[in-house]
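Checklist before submission:
- one chain only
- standard amino acids only
- sequence pasted in full

Submission:
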Amino acid sequence: MNVENLISIISAVIIYLFGQYVLKIVIEPAQQLKKTIGEFNHFILCYGGRVIPNYTYVKDEESHFAYSECVKLSAKIVADCSVIPFYSVVSFLFLLPRKNKITQAAIELNALANFCFSKNEDVHEIVSAKIKNIKSILCLK
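Returned file contents:
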């Protein structure tokens, strides 16, 4: 085996390892964040009304479920965002929201969770405003 073949093999291995590094460190976490944003949207569309406890059709266990999902998703989206290195570059390449917007959406969702057991009469307007705010922050439809 001559030196040129050895250099070709070593180059191929280095390129393969670099590709795997980019895949595991950058691409997969970015895809996971997109998946979490999708779960965010799914939660808001399917369970947004369950956050409002004053309605007669909302059972207590549904309020508990909505609360736990709000808290879980708000923590998950921040964790998924913090795993991605060079987030500003990756967010530009993968069309992800900016880091401060993700943090702001998580804060809003945590605030939304606090209304799950509220007895306030005006909670419907507050929850609706928070849901609209989350949708606008993350550019959800």
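Reviewer check: The chain has one domain: 27-137.
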